[in-house]
Write a structure and sequence with these properties.
By secondary structure, this protein is mainly alpha-helical. It contains seven helices and no strands.
């Protein structure tokens, strides 16, 4: 079996509604870079207590992971490898959502609005990756989009 390095770009392949209106391309890599940067900034502002350090370290790991894993997915060697790597992004985003919710519940920060906006961005990224997985699986099965949605 010969494995080929098949590029599966996800950036610039889609356009968001806002970007479509002004003609600029949607770039998922840039969005993930901004997301990771905001996660780093938030974790740096958490208290240096036992709980704060634990949550910060867990969120830092899971919240920055989608960026490099997305890069790995772009260089996937097969459709199943692509799906696996995108699934890792999805898993890490779901974990990040839980840590962010915990930060609000305790609360570990007074910056509730910034944390809430990170939760909303996490939700949107989860939807993007879940849809990418669904699309990739449907394309690999030979079924049409309509067959998958039923």
């Amino acid at each position: 079996m010969i494995l080929r390095n098949v590029q599966r770009p996800t950036s610039n392949a889609q356009r968001s509604e806002a970007n479509s209106a002004n003609g600029s391309a949607y770039d998922l890599e840039e969005r993930l870079l901004n997301y990771a940067a905001e996660i780093v900034r938030l974790t740096e502002r958490l208290p240096h207590s036992r709980a704060g350090n634990h949550v910060a370290s867990q969120l830092l790991r899971s919240g920055t992971s989608p960026l490099p894993n997305h890069g790995e997915a772009q260089a996937a060697e097969s459709r199943s490898d692509f799906i696996h790597k995108i699934s890792i992004c999805l898993k890490e985003l779901r974990e990040s959502r839980r840590w962010l919710r915990l930060i609000l519940r305790i609360p570990l920060t007074r910056e509730e609005n910034k944390t809430q906006s990170l939760i909303l961005e996490t939700e949107e990224l989860i939807r993007i990756f879940a849809k990418s997985i669904k699309t990739a699986k449907a394309a690999g099965s030979g079924r049409s989009k309509l067959d998958v949605e039923r």
